[in-house]
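User: I'm curious what two different proteins look like when written out as structure tokens. Can you demonstrate?

Assistant: Sure. I'll show them one after the other, since each token string lines up with its own sequence. Here's the first protein:
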Amino acid sequence: MLRRIAAQDEPRLRAVARAAKESLLHIKDLQALRTAPVPAAPPRARQTQPGPPKRTIFDAETSETLPGRVVRKEGESPVGDPAADEAYDGLGSTHRLYGEVFGRDSIDAAGLALDATVHYGKLYDNAFWDGNQMVFGDGDGEIFQRFTKSVSVIGHELAHGVTQYTANLAYRNQAGALNESMSDVFGVLVEQYLKQESVARASWLIGEGLFTDKVQGAALRSMKAPGTAYDDDILGKDPQPDSMDTYVRTSADNGGVHINSGIPNRAFYLVAAALGGNAWDAPGQIWYGTLTSGSLPATCTFGKFAKTTAATAEELFGAGSAEHDAVLKAWETVKVKV
């Protein structure tokens, strides 16, 4: 997506294209960081009494120096800066999901403080977890609005931290696509739990509301229907496949980590749709149990992940249960062999 923006040469888009090029250079460094080996923390037992969040919001004031100036600490009132207050609330919503639904005490399961920096860079088109904290750009104003506007994006990026502390999936090829998919799964769960949305009522969109009204698109990605999130003259058409029949083999994007994540994303949606109710219940428990099982290799394939979700569903709900059958059927639909 950013490559498409960076290639624009229309006069009105020159500043946006320049900002996209700078964002791409930074993302390349960030991806290198994610591909570096990081020791994964051992799986932890479910915690029944997670502690309260410990949030601090910083303002980079359009610089790229982290963390920046402190603008809001845990328990303090809103400061009136939408980005700072949205970041504070989004961190809290993410902490609440992990604590109340999964019994996890923050990102590392040990009460990690949640720090976030807003107003990072100039026209910066991204949000990211850098291994220690969250960082949010304000967008370019032409294609993207500020990245704190989407709680699913906040939940997505923080989930990279959870993966870092659990399965530590390599950020390349199918393992990288699973890394991205796990972040999408927990990103939508954060949003759905916050809004108390059922499977049927939820949009299943990642980054809904991030685009300006100049863009022909609803969101960055659709878990319900990968490949349909946007179709725009500048951005092109959403390239995500929805099954292995259209799996994209590419050397770009670390082997298509943001593209092929559509396949496991759809599998999760199909499990949730088959079971109904709330996605954070059985489907969320199966995916969280899989991520924290200690059974996923760093170079996990879609097939290995699918087998582990089936084993987790069987362990939690029993062989032949509706939950177990839903998992098997979902992977069959997206053409991943269990």
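Here's a second, unrelated protein for contrast:
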Amino acid sequence: MTAPHGRGLLHLAAALDQQTAFDAASYVGPAQLAERGGLDFVTLGDTFARPGPDALAVLSRVAPATRRIGLVPTVTTTHTEPFHVQAAVATLDWVSRGRAGWQLDVSTTEGEARLFGRRHAAPADALWREAGEIAEVAARLWDSWEDDAEIRDEATGRFVDRDKLHHVDFRGATFFVKGPSIVPRPPQGHPVRVVDATEGPARRVAARYADVALVRVVGPAQAWAVRAELRDAAAKFGRYPDTLRVLASLVVDLGDGERAAEPGHGGGGPRQTAQGPLYRGGPVDLAELIAAWHASEAVDGFHLTPVEPHRDLERLVNGTVALLQHRGLFRTFYPGSTLREHLGLARPANQYAVTGGAS
């Protein structure tokens, strides 16, 4: 287990989703804007259920155009090969020099299954059990190279110390992986794993494997209860609860300017909608909502999805975030270079190097 580190900090993230953008360059400017605001990370959703660019490939393009902000694509664990998924996420961590994350998701529909033709759709609880196994084997594969396994000895022609490569020999319910990985251990050790823990089947996976859990809630009391449940479950899995960050997910519409707050809600929100909890109002009242929820320890921070990507992200960074920074509630610079450092999470020890696991 990893010792607690960096509790009490406010964490902020934003989604870069754009329904009509298929060129990677469209995502560079918004990511740079979010970085200027000091946000911990940006996410980019992906699904087999609708057309769109590959999120991981897009953020690999964004990586060299940014320097500090974390990059978290959604990569589904259903119908994809676990070995390839972990290698792709590890590669993003190398490309970004330690800023990669991975939002795990599952594909539940028969239409998505038919795209691959290997198996039929399955219930969400079974798919999330599989996702948990894939999160586990990914961590083992990331550790299958010890940090000093690369020796690059030109005199002898040896590239790696084979004694420091390890077979993982993992058998899940639907797959078997021998290992080792084809990608050296990522700069962060383990890229940050993110799970939307709103629904029951995903919550167990989040408690056991996630570094960041996202929850769609409409009030601080509900958020506090979910956060407490996740932290208690994490402890039962042998984790320090303080190594799990819980962020409230809100859709934000900042296009109407400032308005007086409705009773109990900054700027007329959040309120439940088909897209999730929605805040509609101005940047100032959103800052008040964020500050109040975080002060009550309801959440560790917020993941915000702009209704209008360019307009709302600009108002979020230059309005809400600037106000939080002015009040000393959010960072004005990045104290480190990796996403784990932004989140106050230690770099995991290599399980094979520590325990001397068989190769």
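A detail about the second structure: The longest helix spans residues 124-142.
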